[in-house]
Design a protein that fits this description.
Layout lengths: L1 E9 L9 E6 L4 E8 L4 H24 L5 H25 L7 E10 L2 E7 L3 E6 L2 E4 L6 H7 L5 H4 L21 E6 L5 E5 L1 H4 L4 H8 L5 H14 L6 E9 L15
Antiparallel strand pairs: 1-10, 2-3, 3-4, 4-5, 5-8, 6-7, 6-9, 9-10
Helix pairs in contact: 1-2
Length: about 260
């Protein structure tokens, strides 16, 4: 199974600065996306530190470990790299007054043959598009999600909540962070979308699916998603990484753009 990756970031229509950051490493099928938070340019600093550190350190480990590492070992390496990135951001925030309180959400994906290992912190997400059906496969670490889980509000009410951007977990805001990791199967033709809330707040799942299913390449897909989010208001920075699984015998060899409603 070969994974094709394409990433893009846009400041959106409401902000002049960009606090989102993306990084990919095609050689080890690694994708990292972060959405920073903090005053001045601190959010930008935090997100860039996270993506560059994890791409460099986890990418190096994956190259050295090659295919001999077990999935459990890869997940452990993800934990260690994110913990080290967390400490670097936390220490930088405490050493520089202008960076005080900075942090970032995070989603990281490592593709291995017919599966993907995902880790995430906060409300940056990963979706999977399979045969025309889009499914969110990460669960937000946010106050809003906790309210939904507790039955205090419905998902429909959540779309209009004023608490959309209150995360309950972030990288760099404390000296330790808990990375949630899980594994999902990958079939030929699957498309995975990593994104910041600048996309998911502007487009619902149906809207995202409709945009994706109208595209023929990953590059056009990222451009179309960003354009749609901007057309819907573009209230935040928008970051997108698309990954497509090519080859393999575990699924019909149909193109991902053929699944249209």
């Amino acid at each position: 199974m070969m994974i094709e990756l394409h990433a893009a970031v846009d400041p959106g229509r409401a902000r002049s600065n960009n606090e989102d950051s993306v990084a990919t490493d095609d050689g080890v099928s690694l994708a990292v996306l972060a959405d920073g938070m903090g005053g001045y340019n601190a959010g930008e600093v935090a997100s860039n530190m996270a993506t560059s550190f994890i791409r460099t350190e986890l990418g190096r480990w994956l190259r050295e470990a090659s295919t001999q590492a077990s999935d459990a070992e890869v997940r452990r390496a993800m934990d260690i790299c994110v913990d080290n990135a967390n400490r670097a951001i936390f220490n930088a925030a405490n050493a520089n007054p202008q960076y005080a309180g900075m942090g970032t959400t995070l989603v990281v994906a490592v593709f291995r043959d017919n599966r993907v290992l995902l880790g995430h912190v906060g409300d940056s997400r990963c979706y999977r598009l399979r045969e025309g059906r889009l499914q969110q496969i990460t669960r937000d670490h946010s106050l809003l999600q906790e309210q939904i889980d507790a039955g205090l509000i419905t998902p429909e009410q959540a779309a209009f909540s004023a608490n959309k951007n209150l995360v309950t977990r972030a990288v760099g805001v404390e000296d330790t962070v808990l990375l949630e990791t899980h594994q999902h199967d990958v079939l030929a033709g699957d498309v995975f979308l990593l994104c910041s809330d600048g996309l998911s707040d502007m487009l619902d799942d149906e809207g995202i699916a409709q945009v994706l299913q109208g595209q023929e390449t990953l590059e056009s897909g990222t451009r179309a998603l960003i354009a749609a989010a901007n057309d819907a208001g573009g209230k935040d920075n928008i970051s997108v990484i698309l990954g497509r699984a090519n080859g393999g015998a575990s699924a019909p060899a149909r193109s991902w753009w053929a699944f249209r409603r």
